[in-house]
Design brief:
By secondary structure, the chain is mainly beta. The chain is 13% helix and 37% strand.
């Protein structure tokens, strides 16, 4: 699982991690609490209480990849620009968050991804890793 948390100054578009068939994106209404590290340390339930959108990307080799787009304070609107039930390519834009902090959780099937060692080490120590668009966080295991 990868949790990608954005700050107001970050790039707020999100993209597909691999090629595959994307399902329809479903809205699950909820609150709009902050997803800052301080807020999440106090209440991890924000991840499943906030307004969120869910879709499943299905890749022939990597299997099903669940993508949760989580709204947050000042981000009540998520704009999905990719068509539902379409074949998408790695790197294609999925959509974007309106201004503010927001969060995306990507859940991979067990043993389908090998994350970069630095990411694994920093995560184990509770340290957020700053990533830029296009940087690799790991690779699929086929």
């Amino acid at each position: 699982m990868v949790i990608s948390r954005l700050c107001p100054v970050d790039y707020h578009r999100f993209h597909f991690p691999t090629t595959g068939q994307i399902s329809e994106t479903q809205l699950i209404n909820g609150s709009l609490f902050s997803v800052s590290p301080i807020a999440l340390r106090k209440k991890i339930a924000i991840f499943w209480e906030n307004k969120r959108y869910i879709s499943i990307l299905e890749n022939e080799k990597a299997g099903k990849i669940v993508q949760l787009l989580i709204g947050a304070t000042c981000v009540g609107k998520v704009h999905v620009t990719a068509p539902s039930n379409a074949l998408v390519e790695k790197g294609d834009e999925y959509g974007y968050f309106a201004f503010g902090g927001s969060c995306m959780i990507t859940i991979f099937q067990p043993s389908s991804v090998q994350f970069n060692q630095t990411l694994v080490e920093q995560s184990a120590n509770g340290i957020e890793t700053y990533a830029k668009i296009g940087e690799s966080m790991g690779s699929f295991i086929y």
